[in-house]
Structures are given as C-alpha cells and as structure tokens.
C-alpha cells in the first residue's frame, strides 16, 4: 500500500510540475499574443487613409486565373505539403501587407539615397559659389592688385592702405 501511495505521490508531483510548465508556456504565448495585438493596433493607427481604404495592391491575375486559383483553394489537398500550406492561408493577407510595407520601405530608402546625393551635390555647388565670392586677404593687401569679384551684387572694397604706404594716384576719366 505504501508503494502505491509513493507512486501516486510521485505521479502527482510530476503532473504538478508539468502543469506548472504548461501554464508558464501558455502565459508566454498569451503575452506574445497580447504584444502582437498591441503592435497591430499601433500599426493600424499609423496607416494612411489610402492604406485603410485600399490595404492591398490589386491582383495581377487575369479573371480566369483568379477563378482557377480560388477553385484550387476550395479543393481538398492531396499532398502533405499542400495541406501544410493550406493551414497558413489565413496569413496570406498578413504577408500581402508585410510585402507591401517592405516594398514601400525599399522605395523610401532609394528616394532618401537620391535626395542625399542631390543634397551633397547642391552643397558642393554652394561651396564652390561661396568660394568664388570669398576674397583672399593676401590679394587685398597688394596695392596694385585689382579685387576679383565674381558676384556683381556685392562689391568688395579695399581696406585703407597701411600708414606710411605709398599712396596710389587716382585718375578720373570723363
């Protein structure tokens, strides 16, 4: 009798440990499911109006091909792989949305790269333009050197000559 009682006690302890592990695993699954639902809600709020109205791209299949695909989905699959794929048909909309988001992400990345290249090019042009406007201090210190200005809207004036320097003669033509 004590053997049976000890065996029952071990079985009960094992069952308790297994049920605790199962509860823990199920708790993790519930936690993941709640996180997925929160993320889905967050994503839904971030969708544009166009995405809410037309969330998927139109099918590229012809009318006959679309009918054939629907008929094949209604038929019972004969192969185990086909059955496994059929079990995940419910995720088809998810993968459509996922792929659409990936395509848009790639397009935005390419657009950003193009804009970055354009920005660099414009900055280089602006730098060259501003370098053309800058007047070298050494060139201004020479009394006989005329100032070279490429921008006519901003005339450059020479600094007054240093004390004791030779005064240049000014000639007025009329």
TrEMBL record:
Keywords from the named record: Cell projection, Cilium, Flagellum
GO terms for biological process, alphabetical: axonemal dynein complex assembly; cilium-dependent cell motility; regulation of cilium movement
Compartment(s) where it occurs, according to its Swiss-Prot or TrEMBL record: Cytoplasm, Cytoskeleton, Flagellum axoneme
GO cellular component, one term: axonemal dynein complex
Region entry Disordered, spans: 140-174
PANTHER family membership: DYNEIN REGULATORY COMPLEX SUBUNIT 2, NYD-SP28 PROTEIN
Protein name: Uncharacterized protein
Provenance organism: Pavo cristatus
Record lineage: Eukaryota, Metazoa, Chordata, Craniata, Vertebrata
